[in-house]
Amino acid sequence: MSCGCKTSGDSAHSCGTKTASGCDSVNTCGNSYKLSVFDWLSNINNPSTSQTDFVEVRFKNDRKFFYKNVNNLPLHMGSVITVESSPGHDIGVVSLTGELVKIQMKKKFVSEDNPLKIYRLANQRDIEVWQESRAKEEPVKIQARKISYGLNLDMKITDVEYQGDGGKVTFYYTSDTRVDFRQLIKEFAGTFRTKIDMKQIGFRQEAAKVGGIGSCGRELCCSTWLTDFRSVNTNAARYQQLSINPQKLAGQCGKLKCCLNYELDSYLDALNDFPPSSTTLDTVNGKAFCIKIDVFKKKMWFAYVERSMAWYDLDVADVKKMVAQNKKGEKAQPLEEIKVHDIPVRSVDLIQENTIDRFERKNKNSGKNSNRKKPSNNNNNNQRPPNAPRAENRGPENQAERGNKRPEKAPNQNGKPQNQQPKKFKKKFPPKRDDNA
């Protein structure tokens, strides 16, 4: 099927958006998610009586085009239709209907003169031929790569797309140089027995067709929503204070990432308040040059020429004042006196994510002696102290001085006091053996 969810032929199915009657796995079911357009006018009635006859039809990967519904067929998003092609006919899935089609045609500069037509809703025979053609694309791509490698051509065949009726096959390839593929077309025509069409695409278009996951953890922008590929240069990375590392700045296409242009305008607006990075300050202790700039904190780091290892962070306002003093011919104050030491803010870990022993019991013996009875304060005079000797072992003189003084025990021959009980130790049991370990 077109989207891989096996329900594209159902009349009540829509692969374009995630709805109750649409594809449940629209985000991951393949072609239905690539460059999909959300129809925010689907639940709004058109106030005008005239409706557009054009619909947007999606084919394999990111290939889309606009066709005119000349027969006034009841079409909706997800309908499998048979459209005009050269030669024969092609089969695609309706991806957008309604007034938004006019906006998309205007955005892509598609004229309404001499449009391609929609023949009919695809029948069962058309869908079967379409599925058979789609099943042959992967082995044909592998075989085509072997043929091009045997001819020593400097090219890479990225994708293969069969027409809906199987009458034409299109090979998408990438190459750094111009390729003479006249002999290659002869080999392809003799091997695959069909009309051959070769289309060269760029490396960004290749990444859009293949797809993948970027370093941000999301699906590639070029395969989901990005259609216009603007040029990206290393100045965009320099303005954003990024290290010029090709391995980190390059995307899966081998070019600089398109997302470097997303926040470039915000950085340029913020840098208008900063002095140039080539600013030098003439201070009492010598000249200082700029090391780096922090756009978010609005600070600049300076270092002396003689002591380049010691950096001093200054606010932009202080730097402007020092530059103004230098223009008057005056020397600015030393960097040590202007530098303001920031008090580090100590963060409080409320949920204890940074503690390694957060799951361990810190007081393992805290609950063992909790069940013992505690002596009450009312009967302190009647109770015997824990280490006091018994009453029958005391003399009459000691019983009279019960609360004042304890009798001393006479030592025995060995020098140890008599009637001393030996210490009791708890018996330790050996650990149980686990035979299953």
Radius of gyration: 41 Å
Strand order of the largest sheet: 1-2-5-3-4
Please estimate the helix content.
10-25%
Count the DSSP helices. 11
Helix/sheet category: alpha+beta
Low-confidence stretches: 1-22, 25-32, 391-401
Strand residue content:
15-25%
How far apart are the first and last residues' alpha carbons, in Å?
52 Å
Helix-strand sequence? EEEEHEHHEEHEHHHHEEEEHHH
Question: Can you characterise this structure?
Answer:
A hairpin with a 2-residue loop joins strand 9 (280-283) and strand 10 (286-294). The radius of gyration is 41 Å and the shape is extended. A five-stranded mixed beta barrel has the order 1-2-5-3-4. A four-stranded antiparallel sheet has the order 9-10-11-12. Residues 1-22, 25-32 and 391-401 have low confidence and may be disordered. It has helices spanning 100-107, 124-135, 137-150, 182-192, 203-210, 234-239, 246-249, 264-271, 316-327, 335-338, 396-400; strands spanning 54-58, 64-68, 80-84, 89-96, 116-121, 156-162, 168-174, 195-200, 280-283, 286-294, 299-304, 312-315. The protein has 437 residues and is an alpha+beta fold. Helices cover 21% and strands 16% of the residues. The chain is built from eleven helices and twelve strands. The longest helix has 14 residues, at 137-150.
